[in-house]
TrEMBL record:
NCBIfam families: cas3_core (TIGR01587), cas3_HD (TIGR01596). It comes from Lentzea tibetensis. One of its GO terms (biological process) is defense response to virus. Residues 274-451 form the Helicase ATP-binding domain. The chain crosses the membrane at residues 15-36. It comes from the Bacteria. The keyword Chaperone does not apply. It holds the Pfam family DEAD. GO terms for molecular function: ATP binding; hydrolase activity; metal ion binding; nuclease activity; RNA binding; RNA helicase activity. InterPro entries: Cas3-like_dom, CRISPR-assoc_Cas3_HD, CRISPR-assoc_Cas3_HD_sf, DEAD/DEAH_box_helicase_dom, DEAD_box_RNA_helicases, Helicase_ATP-bd, Helicase_C-like, Helicase_Cas3_CRISPR-ass_core. This is CRISPR-associated helicase Cas3. Keywords: Antiviral defense, ATP-binding, Helicase, Hydrolase, Membrane, Metal-binding, Nuclease, Nucleotide-binding, Transmembrane, Transmembrane helix.
Length: 779
């Protein structure tokens, strides 16, 4: 075994690279150049040959030993995967994932590019994948994809050794001798994974997550000069429950004399939490809007986690507005450090910024269903690194009716697998509970109800009546006139374009009134500011008229006497009704006016649901009737043939074939040179959003400073990204790519088109308001 002669163009002489040194030693430098001598406390200890994983930390100036890196990654990956019975497999993948870095070519190039910011650019993944392929089987794909992402299993099958592999492997064994044992032996794959293809596919996703999270954590520790990776200690869930209950009691006391609605809420909470001691599984919480469902679901999840040894609670909601609101409530109840809010889609696979990607290392996570399921069925490391946190967790799906129908089969199958094989408890919370058990994928799954008599509960909490303006169809101008007759009113429409139009019609009619607009064209900090203003006006019983997209209809805590709702599927109508007389303080019932404006037609993405809605609901047949809702969902799923729908079936087929790229990016049509069919990919939002950072709303210039820090990329960036999410606005990629819009955007990181800085105007009322932005955009 011989060392690698490494030529440094900067120093003009050779370095001999081979032997690993302990991480607490540092290498000698002359004029900033490595000269191949090890020093400790200023003394030369020995001359040696080094094998490195990463170039020197800008914090400490120390190089990162390959042996130290793979061992640390191995142990971390094991600790992450132990919760789902794959600790030995994850440890093996972690030990070999960077084996290819022992090659002379890779070490030579590392020395050349060190300090320049350039990539080594030489494949180092194949050797480790080949080393462990016989024992890890298909899970060796995790090694092959730990930088670029999971691909298709055929790439692993077709992988062959390169001409320099024998020597590189012996060099790797020289510094990590325990890796020799991984060449032969019994399978490391859990037995059930090999028997059920979809289970094996899900297992590979989670063990891949354990590997890339461990890899990123150890690499980040080196970059930041830490003595060990930054991993939160296990949480005392019993202490978290105690804190939650203490602060909840104080919150209730602050409300004063309880109303009739408050009494129903307390009774529901106590009844549901008593059932938290039951076995892990899938639970259903059918509770009307305004019944305290958000608090009740969190209480059940925390108590269940404490009693059943779950590691964390993950709450997923359909709209970012709800995450912002709910995360604030949970922080008040649990403490700032216990709650992580994560909803941005901006997770870059830039090699610096992927270290800052979220990994949900918190006891209570609030996220969106988009973030959750696009990650679960994604393939890239930055998005996947959090997935292992789903094992042995309680996952609360709030407003579960908002899950996209074309993706229900893979979503429900994923939840079934997590529940049955990975120790995950799933709670479905919604006033409009879909009848998922009518679908084949959940026909045999046991779903435990947490409410014995939902009909009686809905009857007790009925606080609004419906009015229907469908024939003749009004215009938006006529609806604006009706809104202007009210002191306080909320109008919810189906698209961003309709919201802008109706807002301006109302504002023009009542120029002196408080007229407010809400949509996700406004950055979260802006929306939070506006919602705070709305709640203050309502609390003081002052006039306020609000026009919003559907982001406000599910879970947002506002209470109006009148709600106008553009025609939409039944579940959306019922959710909107939850904003009318929410606290039950009116002497009679609140009003919900359902209208079908002739100049604001129902968008295509709602038409199937609206057709079924009109067949079942109308005057005298309200959408908050649980029996009619069950029939509605059954008709909807049958009419759309959800069980056999092309998109869901294609995703399931590609999952069974272990073609992760086809699942995430769409399959390639057989026998053609065409690109991937994105219509058959798993994407929660078909518009494929790009995040733009708004720096002009913040007068203090905080967003501008955060963008500057992100561009420099020095030091820990996770906190920077977290804070920047408050200034991000999602734009459909097709819109962001239009020349007139693209001219107003500047990439935050050169060469990456996932995150931009918005350089155009930012309207103080409606946010990003560019005429090229599509009118048919949800959110």
């Amino acid at each position: 075994m011989r060392p690698c002669p490494v030529w440094s163009a900067r120093s003009g002489y050779s370095i001999w690279v081979f032997v690993v040194v302990p991480a607490h030693w540092s290498t000698g430098f002359v004029g900033g150049r490595l000269y191949g001598r090890v020093v400790r406390r200023g003394r030369a200890i020995r001359k040696g040959l080094f094998v490195w994983a990463h170039s020197p930390s800008t914090t400490t100036g120390r190089w990162h030993s390959l042996a130290d890196h793979v061992r640390s990654t191995s142990e971390l990956a094991r600790s992450f995967a132990n919760s789902f019975g794959a600790g030995d497999l994850a440890a093996a993948l972690g030990l070999v994932h960077d084996a290819g870095k022992a090659s002379c070519a890779w070490q030579t190039k590392l020395a050349e590019v060190s300090g320049t910011g350039e990539k080594v650019g030489i494949n180092h993944k194949n050797l480790g994948a080949l080393l462990v392929r016989n024992r890890a089987q298909a899970a060796a794909m995790a090694v092959l994809g730990h930088h670029g992402g999971l691909d298709r299993v055929q790439k692993l099958v077709n992988l062959i050794h390169g001409p320099d592999d024998v020597e590189a492997l012996e060099r790797f064994f020289g510094v990590v001798p325990e890796a020799r044992a991984l060449r032969d032996g019994p399978s490391l794959l859990p037995e059930a994974w090999g028997e059920l293809m979809l289970l094996g596919e899900m297992g590979i996703r989670l063990v891949f997550s354990a590997l890339v999270d461990a890899d990123h954590l150890d690499t980040a520790a080196h970059a930041e000069g830490l003595s060990r990776p930054r991993v939160a200690p296990p949480t005392d869930m019993n202490e978290l429950v105690r804190r939650f209950e203490h602060n909840r009691a104080a919150l209730l006391a602050d409300r004063g004399e309880p109303s009739d609605v408050d009494r129903v809420r307390v009774g529901l909470y106590e009844d549901v939490v008593r059932r938290a001691m039951r076995e892990p599984g899938v639970y259903r919480l059918p509770a009307p809007t305004g019944s305290g469902k958000t608090m009740t679901a969190a209480g059940f999840a925390l108590h269940h986690a404490a009693r059943r040894g779950k590691a964390r609670v993950i709450v997923a909601v359909p709209f970012t507005t709800i995450t912002e609101q709910n995360a604030g409530v949970y922080r008040h109840l649990l403490g700032e450090q216990a709650v992580l809010e994560h909803h941005s889609n901006a997770e870059l696979d830039d090699r610096r910024l992927r270290l800052a990607a979220e990994n949900w290392d918190a006891p209570f996570v609030v996220t969106t269903t988009v973030q959750l399921f696009d990650s679960l069925f994604g393939r890239r490391p930055a998005r996947s690194r959090k997935l292992h946190r789903l094992a042995n967790a309680v996952v609360v799906l709030d407003e579960v009716q908002a899950l996209p129908v074309p993706l229900l089969v893979p979503i429900l199958d994923g939840l079934r697998l997590l529940s049955q094989h990975f120790g995950t408890t799933v709670l479905l919370a919604s006033a409009t509970q879909p009848s998922f058990e009518h679908l084949a994928v959940w026909k045999t799954l046991e779903i435990t109800p947490l409410v014995d008599d939902p009909v009686e509960l809905f009857t007790r909490l009925k606080r609004a009546r419906y009015e229907w303006q469908l024939k003749p169809r009004p215009t938006l101008e006529q609806i604006a006139a009706q809104i202007c007759e009210q002191r306080q009113a909320l109008a919810i429409v189906n698209t961003v374009g309709h919201a802008r139009t109706l807002y301006r019609l109302v504002a023009e009619r009542k120029p002196d009134a408080e007229v407010v607009h809400l949509s996700t064209r406004m950055c979260p900090r802006h929306r939070e500011h506006v919602l705070t203003r709305i709640r203050a006006l309502l609390a003081e019983d002052k006039p306020v008229l609000v026009v919003s997209t559907q982001l406000v209809e599910a879970g947002v805590d506002v209470d109006f006497p009148v709600v106008f709702r553009a025609l939409a599927p039944a579940e959306s109508l019922q959710q909107a009704a939850g904003r009318a007389n929410r606290e039950g303080k009116l002497p009679g019932l609140g009003r919900v006016v359902v209208f079908d404006a002739s100049d604001a037609p129902v968008p295509e993405f709602y038409r199937a649901g609206v057709a079924k809605t009109l067949a079942l609901f109308g005057p005298g047949r309200d959408p908050d009737d649980p029996a009619l809702l069950a029939e509605y969902y059954q008709r909807l799923y049958t009419g759309l043939n959800v069980d056999e729908a092309r998109r869901g079936a294609a995703i399931q087929d590609n999952r069974a074939e272990l073609d992760f790229r086809a699942v995430a990016d769409g399959p390639k049509p057989t026998g053609t040179g065409a690109g991937r069919d994105r219509r058959l990919a798993f994407r929660m939002i078909d518009e494929d959003p790009v995040s733009v950072i708004v720096t002009t709303w913040d007068e203090q210039g905080r967003a501008t400073e955060l963008v500057r820090q992100l561009r420099i990329g020095v030091g820990p960036l996770r906190g920077v990204l977290r804070e920047l999410r408050g200034y991000m606005v999602p734009l459909p990629r097709a819109v962001a790519s239009a020349p007139d819009v693209r001219a107003l955007c500047r990439p935050v990181i050169d060469g990456h088109d996932e995150l931009w800085e918005w350089r155009g105007d930012y309207d103080p009322q409606v946010g990003v308001d560019e005429r090229a932005i599509g009118e048919e955009t949800v959110w």
